[in-house]
Amino acid sequence: MKRSLVIGKTNVGKTLFCIHFARYMGVRELRWLVEEADGRTDCRVMSVAEAEASLSDVHPHRTRCLQSVAVEFPAGKTVRQLLLTDTTGLTEGIHPEPALREAMAQTLQAMTDASVILHMVDAWAIGHALGGAAGPGRVWDALEAQLADFGVRHGGYVLLANKMDLPGAMDGYRFLCKRYSRQRVLPVSALHGTGFREVKQVVWRFA
Ligand SMILES: Nc1nc2c(ncn2[C@@H]2O[C@H](COP(=O)(O)OP(=O)(O)OP(=O)(O)O)[C@@H](O)[C@H]2O)c(=O)[nH]1
Ligand SMILES: [Mg+2]
Predict the structure, then answer these.
(1) Which segments constitute the G domain (predicted)?
(2) Contact, 144 vs 9, CB < 8 A?
């Protein structure tokens, strides 16, 4: 099954997006295929409400593995399945926790053979940084730029500007559109599900 990988820094909303996008695609019971960095796999079944409560929160590095749900796309008279994979958030520099470094390496490894890369960023944080003394460089740093460079070369790459429901996020979205004028930048709210129709259209083409 082809894989659509949701990558990005920690706390940008990757997990909430996967939960709500799966629900948008008609998944009522989430059957997560969990792939730990040490190679162990597991299957966890939960409702959307359980997933929201247990898998996504404000603390950084809540996710420390690959966790995937299968979503279905109609293709003529048949149905195609795509694995929507949530990942460990990436950080600049070398993280002091070895287990987290391994989990981040697992994310990077998964990028090489994903069919679609959904690079999620926090448009609200970028918008805020634009108004600050340090400018956008504080949040749009070398890591984000390197992920984008990889994605552009890789193909099947989309930038998701998340948290568009928050004030100031539009400034962050405009910054991304200007900087990546030749790339697809989709504004979304993982919380409210806005922009999901456009994401579906893009992802569908690679399913
Ligand atoms: N307002 C708003 N909050 C959001 C949105 N998406 C995510 N959040 C919040 O941002 C926080 C982080 O969300 P997660 O889904 O856990 O983020 P993540 O990228 O998976 O984070 P890690 O797994 O820790 O790297 C949570 O408090 C979410 O409720 C959004 O679109 N709008
Ligand atoms: Mg997460």
Answers:
(1) 5-150
(2) yes
